[in-house]
Design brief:
Blueprint lengths: L5 E6 L3 H12 L4 E5 L5 H6 L1 H20 L12 H25 L2 E5 L2 E5 L2 E4 L2 E10 L3 E3 L13 H4 L8 E5 L3 H12 L3 E5 L11 H13 L3 E3 L4 E6 L4 E5 L4 E4 L2 E3 L3 E3 L32 E3 L10 H16 L13 E3 L5 E5 L2 H7 L3 E8 L2 H6 L5 E8 L5 E7 L3 H13 L4 H5 L11 H4 L9
Parallel strand pairs: 1-2, 1-6, 2-3, 6-16, 8-9, 8-14, 9-10
Antiparallel strand pairs: 4-5, 5-6, 7-15, 11-12, 12-13, 17-18, 18-21, 19-20, 20-21
């Protein structure tokens, strides 16, 4: 008989935690999961899924407008509460599915906040449970700067539940969350101002993609105010007054901050048992997702490696495969594809041009900008931009980036080729699907002659 109640206790029922816990239970391990809120975590309840549903809702404004030149006569109106209610119904359904998956794999669920009393003991309220292994998968939470009046701002969490749409809105931040919500609310008719500290949006992405999205956002009426920060926020009753560090001020009806997230590691008891944290509070782990305490593991956003749901799921899979299925797995963090569901969306995999030029002595760039066939009739002023980065010495494709309709769907398939080490010759020898935007990736023939 084991001296512990469980073989693994998982703290946090988000995507990574649920995957690890249910695999462990499915492999015959005594598995438990601890969650203070609903099962599903950030992705299902406060991130990927609800945000994408709102994005779909906002896109109908484009569809209705584009339909006019295709002969459709429409007089659409939007009801925001209907979208929010239906979104919440879907989240309830998904949370229920996750709960059922855990139950079907014999995972015991403990409701409450889990705190580590020692390396094998978790306190959940007044109850105490023990385990040979413990997995931390508590994710992250939106962070807010310490400025006067910040209590008047909301985060993306609250933006998903607004009772009504404002007329004017300021979004502070230039990352994934900021540009995606800017597209959502602008699409639904809100006057959006996007304030960012950097020179343009999506710092860390390929520079051509960043500049292309900046232009498209401006074309859609989103006012981007760059190279500044908010100094203070004042509540003036009917509106808010924002004073900027560049000396300007502006007034708005709603302020949303999307300036980063912090790991949910506070008050978990980690420091007391020797689990080492980084300066920003994330958990240090090795290539096996082990912390500095050998029987304690961590996956997902709480480790601050790559904050993507599919990566957290891979990490959770690796832990349970290694511990309970005699199948040691380490996650490969190379060439991880990702998408930004901006308007238009972005798909990307591999190195940016700057990264490629730092790593390789000779780099070839192929790119293309064009108006999608849809908009030749719709009349919309929107372009697609596609870029391929090639190691000139080996002809291997080392980065592919796209801004435009269906970019995430297209890049997902191309990511397989990049992971497999495809060369430019492989792309050139592939027959295109015509007419499609994706075919441009197999018909690019002219190298860009100038570096920019």
């Amino acid at each position: 008989m084991s001296k512990y109640d469980y073989d693994m206790i998982t703290i946090g029922a988000g995507s990574g935690g649920v995957r690890a816990a249910r695999l462990a239970g499915g492999y015959g391990a005594r598995s438990a999961i601890v969650e203070a809120e609903r099962v599903g975590g950030t992705c299902v309840l406060r991130g990927c899924i609800p945000k994408k549903l709102l994005i779909y809702g906002a896109h109908y404004a484009d569809h209705f407008e584009d339909a006019k030149n295709y002969g459709w006569i429409l007089d659409p109106q939007h009801d925001w509460p209907t979208l929010v209610d239906n979104k919440n119904t879907e989240l309830d359904r998904l949370s229920g599915i996750y709960t059922k998956i855990l139950s079907n794999n014999d995972v015991d669920a403990h409701e409450g906040r889990g705190v580590l009393a020692d390396e094998h003991t978790v306190e959940v309220g007044e109850n105490t449970i023990t385990s040979e292994h413990i997995l931390i998968a508590v994710g992250g939470w939106p962070s807010m700067p310490d400025i006067p009046g910040i209590e008047h701002a909301i985060s993306s969490n609250e933006a998903l539940e607004l009772p009504s749409l404002p007329k004017r809105m300021v979004i502070v931040g230039g990352g994934y969350i900021a540009v995606e919500f800017a597209g959502i609310f602008a699409g639904l008719g809100v006057e959006v101002i996007n304030i960012l500290r950097a020179d343009t949006v999506l710092r860390g992405f390929d520079e051509d993609i960043r500049l292309s999205l900046d232009k498209e956002m401006n074309n859609r009426g989103i006012n981007i105010v760059s190279n500044t920060m908010v100094h203070s926020i004042a509540d003036e009753g009917a509106e808010f007054n924002l004073r900027l560090e560049n000396g300007e001020s502006l007034k708005t009806d709603l302020i949303m901050y999307a300036t980063g997230r912090y790991p949910n590691t506070a008050n978990l008891g980690l420091e007391n048992i020797g689990v080492q944290l980084t300066e920003n509070g994330s958990i240090k782990v090795d290539e096996w997702n082990r912390t500095t305490v050998p029987n304690i593991y961590a996956v997902g956003d709480v480790t601050d490696r790559i904050q993507l749901t599919p990566v957290a799921i891979q990490e959770g899979t690796a832990v349970s495969e290694t511990l309970f299925n005699n199948n040691p797995i380490q996650v490969d963090y190379g060439d991880v594809p990702t998408a930004v569901f901006s308007n238009p969306p972005i798909g990307t995999v591999g190195l940016t041009e700057v990264e490629a030029r730092e790593k390789f002595d000779r780099v070839d760039i192929y790119d293309s900008r064009f108006k999608p066939l849809l908009h030749t009739l719709s009349g919309r002023d929107e372009n697609t931009y596609m870029k391929m980065i090639v190691d000139a010495n080996t002809n291997r494709v080392i980065g592919v980036h796209m801004l435009g309709m269906d970019a995430p769907e297209i890049i997902q398939g191309i990511a397989i080729a990049i992971k497999a080490g495809a060369t430019k010759a492989h792309f050139d020898g592939t027959t295109g699907i015509h007419p499609s935007a994706a075919e441009e990736f197999v018909t690019m023939r002219s190298r860009r002659k100038t570096q920019r």
